[in-house]
Amino acid sequence: GGDVLSRAMAALGAYRCIECNGEAAELYRDYRRGVLRISICKSCQKPVDKYIEYDPVIILINAVLCKAQAYRHILFNTKINIHGKLCIFCLLCEAYIRWLQLQDSSQNTDPDDLIRYAKEWDFYRMFGIASLEQTSFFIGIFITLWWMTPEMLKRRSDFILLLKALLLSTYGKLLLIPAVIWEHDYTPLCLAFIKVFVLISNSQAIRVTLNLNRILPWFAIFFGLILENGVVCLFQKMGWDV
Asked: Which of 26, 48, 76 finishes a domain?
């Protein structure tokens, strides 16, 4: 089964060199009896993907450091299919933080209200608002990139790959929970740093997926933030706490 999948991937040119982003026919050659030889890229003469022999923890650390090579390995040379679940969990984390802040702003200090709060619909409303904000942020990015580089997003598969990359690059929102659990005087600063880290990860994901320079991804993110803030202003005019 694995050999069939590998041949199919090679036929589609789905593998990428993590150094130069060039296409590769295979990641390694299996000589059996446990002997593997990592393929060398024909363009840059470097190993196509050195991460295939790395421990997942090392790969994760390199991804946290926003290394382009680690992003290419994850996006092009692996079959990670957790972007949907990761997106939902990150949105739940964000909704939980907003729900806590909403309760902290309440003047009612009756302990019995804690049970009532757990049953209220505020948490689900915050989840819906966070989902709409993130959707508008992604739409702003897609519109900008499609307008600036239409040749990069010609096929439906290009949109799907970019969406997957953006969803995976929001993993930094998982840090929201420990930031609140270990609450201290610097929690607002921590939340701001997490926001910046997520934006940096989004920028790197766009750059790696579409093979762009460093400026255009940030340009797209800027317009994504404008559209997201427009949604926030709309909710505020409606009288909703966001």
From this structure: 76
